[in-house]
Design brief:
The protein is built from 13 helices and 7 strands. By secondary structure, it is of the alpha+beta class. Strand 4 and strand 5 form a beta hairpin.
Length: 322
């Protein structure tokens, strides 16, 4: 059985299977390439380094994979760090994903109940029926209750997608109460459907990986196809409404350079894109801080996703209060 990451101490010699995130190739002060990535299990994360044969070994795995490693734990600049001696892709029978990937803080069924309560407040009959029919679909429910929102970066854990949907929905509901000209129905649709294609873009059987559909088509197109499939079963569903709803999905990345096929062209689409980015970045920063706050340091290690170090003291005080 793997040694739990939360119990690692300096000088530990460890071998076992762990889940990879935040993999990157970097250069040392002598311009020699090395690999940096996080080893994860459900108890925590630790930064790992590969100093020798980094370029060759990098071809063997990626973020989202499970690997079998041998190495040792060291203390570097008052932080624990793992030095890799050997690494290979793990065999499927060597690990249990439930021990390697953490779950959302609340149960997925609680999130689903909260989501359905917000759906119940939708007033447009066509949007309400579309959203309700999709959420009641057996395959959607089975996947939604356990899928992550991403392979890495944000909400990349079991139940992360529905947590992300609920977080966005609650924020959008609050904004609609402040800004009365915002259409609540379009906002809640966007919160639920913007990433729903990830239920088929991702696979969670052997690590968190992209499916063939995910690589060839992607979650944005899959989400639009879902709208077409279910809206066509609703008698008299307006074509114009179908285009408007699909536009929210197509534009939710906000900018072309972020991989968005369309830029938001009406207010609700703009707000969905902005709140999606906000919720994603808050979660990304939170997970980064959680992985380091137990070390007792004032500052995090350099966070590539934000291109900066993160100040930990305020976060640590809040954690202690909770």
């Amino acid at each position: 059985m793997n040694k739990q990451i939360k119990s690692f101490i300096a000088q530990d010699k460890v071998q076992g299977c762990y889940y990879i995130t935040q993999k990157s190739m970097l250069m040392d002060k002598n311009s020699k390439p090395y690999l940096s990535f996080n080893l994860n299990d459900k108890t925590g994360a630790i930064n790992a380094r590969v100093w020798d044969n980094a370029e060759e070994l990098s071809k063997e795995f990626d973020s989202g994979d499970v690997v079998h490693i041998k190495g040792h734990v060291q203390s570097y600049q008052n932080k624990l760090q793992f030095v890799i001696h050997q690494l290979r892709p793990a065999e499927n029978n060597e690990y249990d994903m439930r021990l390697l990937v953490k779950s959302a803080d609340r149960s997925s069924s609680e999130y689903m109940d909260e989501l359905l309560r917000m759906v119940a407040d939708i007033t447009d009959d066509n949007i309400k029926q579309l959203v309700t029919n999709v959420l009641n679909d057996k395959e959607v429910q089975e996947r939604l209750l356990k899928y992550p929102a991403a392979r890495s970066i944000h909400h990349a854990y079991f139940g992360g997608l529905i947590e992300h949907m609920v977080g966005i929905s609650k924020t959008l509901k609050y904004l609609s109460e402040i800004h009365k000209h915002l259409n609540y129905d379009y906002l809640i649709f966007g919160a639920i459907f913007h990433d729903i294609g990830k239920l088929w873009e991702l696979s969670i059987e052997n690590g968190i990986n992209y499916t063939t559909a995910g690589r060839l088509v992607g979650h944005i197109q899959i989400g639009c196809e879902l709208v077409d499939k279910f809206s066509q079963k609703i008698l008299g569903f307006p074509d114009k409404l179908r285009y408007e709803l699909k536009h929210i999905i197509l534009s939710h990345h906000g900018k072309y350079e972020y991989g968005s096929p369309k830029r938001p062209k009406f207010l609700e689409a703009m707000v969905v894109a902005m709140v999606d980015e906000l919720d994603s970045k808050i979660n990304t920063a939170t997970q980064a801080m959680l992985s380091e706050v137990q070390d007792g340091n004032e500052w995090s290690s350099f966070q590539k996703n934000f291109d900066r170090y993160l100040y930990l003291d305020i976060f640590a005080k809040k954690q202690n209060e909770d």
